[in-house]
Design brief:
Blueprint: E1 2-6, H1 14-25, E2 30-35, H2 48-60, H3 66-83, H4 89-99, H5 111-132, E3 138-140, H6 143-146, E4 149-150, H7 163-168, E5 176-180, E6 183-186, E7 191-193, H8 199-209, E8 214-219, E9 224-225, E10 237-238, E11 240-242, H9 243-251, H10 262-268, E12 272-276, E13 285-288, E14 300-313, H11 323-333, E15 347-353, H12 359-373, E16 377-390, H13 400-410, E17 417-420, E18 426-432, H14 436-449
Parallel strand pairs: 1-2, 1-8, 2-5, 3-5, 4-6, 8-12, 11-13
Antiparallel strand pairs: 6-7, 9-10, 12-13, 14-15, 14-16, 16-18, 17-18
Helix pairs in contact: 1-3, 2-3, 2-5, 3-4, 4-5, 8-10, 11-12, 13-14
The structure holds aspartic acid (ASP).
The site of aspartic acid (ASP) has 12 residues, from loops.
Protein name: Aspartokinase
Function: Catalyzes the phosphorylation of the beta-carboxyl group of aspartic acid with ATP to yield 4-phospho-L-aspartate, which is involved in the branched biosynthetic pathway leading to the biosynthesis of amino acids threonine, isoleucine and methionine.
Family: Belongs to the aspartokinase family.
Length: 450
């Protein structure tokens, strides 16, 4: 049996939903269908999840919410009308959307999550009804009944290990199950979402829990490209990737798949395929434990901007026992997560994402580090991008970094920092953000066009 997940763009309109129905109907092993909330129909449209955020804000601020409610209900209604759905599902959806504005505001740390989750939850009800009226024996199932029990961390839920057994019972149900993505339920019964884009995570959790033969993740592209198509004209498409390679690429900007979505299928050894709802015959990109090595050391080049480096130097740093620990302890106390930590003999850089920093936090970091460690120099360096060249076959090849560095040098790009993890799945270059695109072009040329 397969788990199949559809993203918001695949569910945005009646036209898309017709394709979705055909895809599910054409293969009876597609038994578990995980759905996102309706996405944008065109670039000017609003995602239902974003409309729910606006609704939440209006409600929390005590504003009139009628317009927000009407827009969201009308969005579902128009899909229902176009699909000719006759059942009473819209009454249920409409009541559910309105009921959000009766939830307690004070002391309710799951309020935001309850609003957000309504996009997926109501879409699953609508799709189950549509399937049932069109030749698929389908049933909507709430994450609580599916056994997706999660930690009570709003916007950042994690599956409780004990859930897997409960999820496995879904195998015993006969119908094609339509499960809303993006959220689970805590042990106390509160709705708690994963991070944004988290329906991919639900698909993966279900695939692992039911021991699916395949997790099919349907989106609006033919799979994964070796570099961003907005930067490289018609980049090579990748037919197979390992979980590790995908993890590295997803981390650094390949947003086709949520980076947390790999873990459950990886642990359960369920292969994953990224496919296109608009072109389902295309084989897409398969993500597997082991792939046929193609001979090329690099499978993909990813980049992500908006990084900041905290640069610390102190003469004889290497002799000072506990220096690194003290730095990290200070960051930990201030709630800052670090991403990378390249070091020299007398200096150390801590790379973090800009979004976790504010002027106030930066001041506290400088103050605490100065008092505790008396460094010679200490400053934040902004506007950095990381560029990763990724490929499991890299450790079998000599000169991959040399080739990359050479390409960057020829393009006049200064490498601010460079790092390679022990697993040799990727090499990471840090460059100034205004050189990010040029760096991708130079690396793509060196590894895919040379
Ligand atoms: N609808 C949610 C979001 O926009 C989750 C998802 O689409 O995966 O983030």
């Amino acid at each position: 049996m397969k788990v199949i997940k559809f993203g918001g763009s695949s569910l945005a309109s009646a036209e898309q939903l017709t394709k979705v129905r055909n895809i599910v109907k054409n293969d009876p092993t597609r038994k578990f269908v995980v759905v996102s909330a309706p996405g944008k129909r065109d670039t000017h449209d609003i995602k239902v999840t974003d409309a729910l955020i606006a609704y939440y804000k209006a409600y929390k601020n005590g504003n009139d919410v009628a317009e927000n409610q009407n827009w969201i209900i009308a969005r579902y209604q128009s899909i229902c009308d176009e699909l000719g759905i006759t059942g009473p599902v819209m009454t249920n959806i409409s009541a559910d959307i309105k009921a959000l504005a009766t939830l307690p505001i004070q002391g309710n740390k799951f309020l935001y999550d309850a609003f957000l989750a309504a996009g997926e939850n109501n879409n699953a009800k609508l799709i189950a009804e549509y399937f049932s009226e069109n030749g698929i024996n389908a049933k909507y199932i709430h994450p609580q009944d599916a056994g997706i029990i999660v930690t009570p961390e709003p916007g950042n839920a994690r599956l409780l290990p004990s859930s897997n057994e409960k999820i496995n019972y879904l195998n015993e149900l006969e119908e094609t199950l339509v499960i809303p993505g993006f959220f689970g339920v805590t042990e106390k019964g509160d709705i708690c979402t994963f991070s944004r884009g988290g329906s991919d995570i639900t698909g993966s959790i279900i695939a692992a829990g039911v021991h699916a033969e395949l997790y099919e993740n349907f989106t609006d592209v033919d799979g994964i490209f070796a570099a961003h198509p907005g930067i490289i004209n018609q980049p090579a498409s990748i037919s197979e990737l390992t979980y590790k390679e995908m993890r590295e690429l997803a981390y650094a900007g390949f947003s086709v798949l949520h980076d947390e979505a790999l873990l459950p299928v990886y642990r359960a050894s369920v292969p994953l395929v990224i496919k296109n709802t608009n072109n389902p015959e295309h084989p897409g990109t398969r993500i597997v434990a082991k792939r046929n090595l193609t001979g090329s050391p690099v499978v993909g080049i990813a980049a992500d901007g908006d990084f900041t480096s905290l640069n610390i130097s102190k003469y004889l740093m290497n002799r000072e026992i506990g220096f690194g620990r003290k730095v990290l302890h200070i960051l930990e106390n201030l709630g800052i997560r670090f991403e990378h930590m390249p070091t020299g003999i007398d200096d150390m850089s801590v790379i973090m994402r800009n979004r976790y920093l504010t002027k106030q936090i930066e001041r506290s970091v400088i103050q605490n580090l100065t008092e505790t460690l008396e460094p010679d120099t200490l400053h934040f360096e902004k506007n950095l991008s990381i560029i990763m060249i990724v490929g499991e076959d890299m450790n079998e090849h000599i000169g991959v970094t040399a080739r990359a560095a050479n390409a960057l040098a020829k393009a006049g790009i200064n490498i601010e920092m460079l790092s390679q993890g022990s697993s040799e799945v990727s090499v990471m270059f840090i460059v100034k953000s205004d050189q990010e695109k040029a760096a991708i072009k130079a690396l793509y040329q060196a590894f895919f066009e040379a």
